[in-house]
Design brief:
The chain is mainly beta. The chain has helices at about 5-15, 25, and strands at about 30-35, 35-40, 55, 110-115, 130-135, 145-150, 155-160, 170-175, 195-205, 210-215, 215-220, 225, 245-250, 255-265, 270-280, 290, 300, 305, 310-320, 330-340, 355-369. About 5% of the residues lie in helices and about 40% in strands. The strands form 4 sheets. Strands 3, 13, 14, 15, 16, 18, 19, 20 and 21 form a 9-stranded antiparallel sheet that branches.
Length: about 375
């Protein structure tokens, strides 16, 4: 059965309650416009926001501190629009289709896949924008469609329309993943709150075998939509993966704040930087006041391979727009950088592969006069 997930999501949204590293080694830039947003791959990095130069050091143990009472939970959809029964495992389901049990490639085609989330949708219950990378290089780019799926307990319960790697983008593709059930008795209803895992998968057109599977990226659904970090406690960032050492500094100028980070990967195989995100936490409230993933904006980010043991530079840049959409209020803020890294197949051990997350705290504070 073929389901029009985009149409279904629009229907759900209409009934939603109101209110409700090496950069020099890459040397290529790709721009993609999606509803006014440009995602760029280049030698420069993505966004932050702030005002004063600080120094960043790896400090995963400092990430969880006490804050005030949590803000109210996000407002979800009416109960009759939320799935109570998700798709179950279907032995007949083809790879990447509803009910498929996620598994590693049986015959790898020689390239790795990675997934990461792009900026939030302008709609509360809009689709999750997902970037897919293939590396190393154009020679190993799959020509077959890429399927982006969300799984729960290893079974696909939501799926985006198949996408292709863009010719001019070498190994890059983008997909919109609707957070609605792809099948079962509650097909086209919104996914219930909880944690899912997003994968990209490519199959052999002749045999149907899986030839590439990305490491999974956790997707937290809250209020029947992708979890929003703005105004949350910084614990939503999680802790630093021990295989990544992330350090760096921030340089301020009158128009913007630029961040330079250095990442050292200690895994056993080359990994891929998929995305960077910068957070500012208000020292007065203990809540996130700025998230570079939170709004529509032009951003530039480093997309580079991480060779084990080598230092790689990431550059990050943004304005100072707050979570509320206006100027960042006067005050002091603690900054954090969060980097998503796709681990290579040789570095994932047993079980299904997962992304690594690097987290660095920007010390000494960011001051907005």
């Amino acid at each position: 059965m073929s389901l029009d997930l985009s149409s279904a999501l629009r229907d759900v949204a209409e009934h939603a309650p109101l209110g409700t590293l090496e950069p020099t080694g890459l040397g290529r830039r790709i721009r993609r416009r999606r509803a006014g947003r440009t995602a760029a791959r280049s030698a420069v990095g993505l966004g932050l926001a702030g005002a004063i130069a600080v120094v960043a050091t790896q400090a995963p143990g400092v990430l969880r501190r006490e804050g005030p009472a949590a803000p109210p939970p996000p407002v979800g959809l009416p109960a009759d629009q939320v799935a109570t029964v998700l798709p179950t495992a279907d032995a007949a389901a083809a790879p990447g289709e509803c009910g498929w049990t996620v598994r590693r490639p049986s015959t790898p085609f020689g390239s790795e896949l990675g997934v990461a989330f792009e900026q939030y949708s302008a709609e509360t219950h809009g689709p999750v924008a997902v970037s897919v990378e293939s590396w190393p290089g154009e020679a190993s780019r799959p020509l077959e469609p890429v399927r982006v799926v969300a799984a729960r307990d290893g079974v696909v319960v939501a799926a985006a329309d198949p996408v292709f790697f863009e010719e001019h983008a070498l190994g890059w593709a983008g997909a919109d993943l609707s957070t609605v059930a792809c099948g079962g008795p509650d097909a086209l209803k919104a996914l219930p709150d909880g944690t899912y895992t997003v994968y990209a998968v490519v199959t052999d057109p002749v045999t149907g075998d899986v030839v590439a599977l990305s490491p999974g990226e956790p997707l937290v659904v809250a209020g029947n939509a992708r979890e929003v970090w703005c105004h949350a406690d910084q614990s939503v960032m999680g802790t630093n993966d021990p295989r990544v050492a992330l350090t760096g500094g921030v340089v301020s100028d009158p128009g913007e704040l630029s961040v330079e980070l250095e990442a050292v990967w200690s895994g056993s195989a080359t990994a891929q930087v998929m995305d960077q995100r910068v957070i500012l936490v208000d020292d007065a409230t203990g809540r996130i006041a700025l998230d570079t993933m939170a709004r529509e904006m032009v951003r530039e980010r480093s997309i580079s391979s991480l060779v084990p043991g080598a230092a790689h530079v990431l550059s990050l840049r943004s304005d100072r727009t707050s979570c509320d959409g206006g100027a960042l209020p006067a005050g002091t803020y603690t900054g954090y950088a969060v980097v998503t890294i796709a681990t290579a197949g040789a570095d994932t051990g047993v079980g299904l592969p997962t992304n690594a997350t690097a987290v660095a705290e920007l010390r000494r504070g960011v001051v907005v006069p």
